Amino acid sequence: MKEYDFYIVPTPIGNLGDITNRAVEVLKSVDIIACEDMRVTQKLLNHFSISTKCISYHKFNEKERLAKFTEIIKSGKKMALVSDAGTPLFCDPGAILVRELRSQGISLTALPGANAAITLLSQVPRTSEEFAFVGFLPKSKSQIIDLLNKYKNTDMVFYESPNRLMTTLELVEENFSDRNISIGRELTKVFEEVITGKISDVISHFKTNILKGEIAGIVHACENNEEAEHYSEKIKNLINKGFSAKDVSIIISTLYNVNKNEIYSYILKAAK
Questions:
Q1: What is the spatial distance between Cα 72 and Cα 129, in angstroms, rounded to a whole number?
Q2: Number of other residues whose CB lies within 10 A of the CB of residue 211
Q3: Pairing assessment for the beta strands 180-185 and 215-219 based on DSSP bridges
Q4: What angle do CA 60, 63, 68 make, to 5 degrees?
Q5: CATH domain 116-219 topology
Q6: Secondary structure of residue 232 in the 3-state scheme
Q7: Residue among 56, 86, 82, 59 at smallest CA distance from 69
Q8: Is 27:33 a contact under the CB 8 Å cutoff?
Q9: Which residue has the higher pLDDT, 41 or 128?
Q10: How far apart (Å, rounded) are the C-alpha atoms in residues 129 and 37?
Q11: Does the structural domain 6-110 have CATH classification 3.90.1310.10?
Q12: Each residue of 102-143: pLDDT tens digit?
């Protein structure tokens, strides 16, 4: 097996059995492991009898660690990077470090492994292979709406905290009608739960169930005529003012960046 100076190593997102044999071997073989929270990583290492030294690496010190890490590697030692759970660089620090190591010609590789986004995507019904991963949603409502507009025709995968999920779901329902959505929480753990369906039904479910644990979600791509139905009142008002179906489809498409042909088709069907 080819050896590298630096390894990006995924760790389990819940079930410890999901770590790979190769990941364990790498963590045992390197000289130093860079990790977010040393207490969390140490529990994992103890479970697999790994005695490798750890050093902290998180979003508050990632820039200042660059020189130290490159110095360590250039001295002949090998390093691995882990996050508290899942695959590093997915909503976790590491991108700055990887860029620096590559710029200095240091050999590195990433191991395949656990990832909450992929775990959710692989177990819910989808109509396309295409998806967009946006990480943790921003706190601003307008920014969330901008993202939903940007990826309205693509399955948008996101992470969210339990205490914010209901507010986020209600925002999606308020602005984007009754979209299909999938929510996974506590993935791979004992109390794993995956809910998929109309957003109104998902909201009703979580109103009567306690929300705990890590959350991964998918706002599914718009279905045919879903966007047109969302603008039905505006379409009706324009038709009543004497605009033709063609004119209305152009106006709505221009103002709201929706598919002109879908609007036109919706108007023709509604007129029958």
A1: 41
A2: 17
A3: antiparallel
A4: 115
A5: 3.30.950
A6: helix
A7: 56
A8: yes
A9: 41
A10: 34
A11: no
A12: 999 999 999 999 999 999 999 999 988 999 999 999 999 999
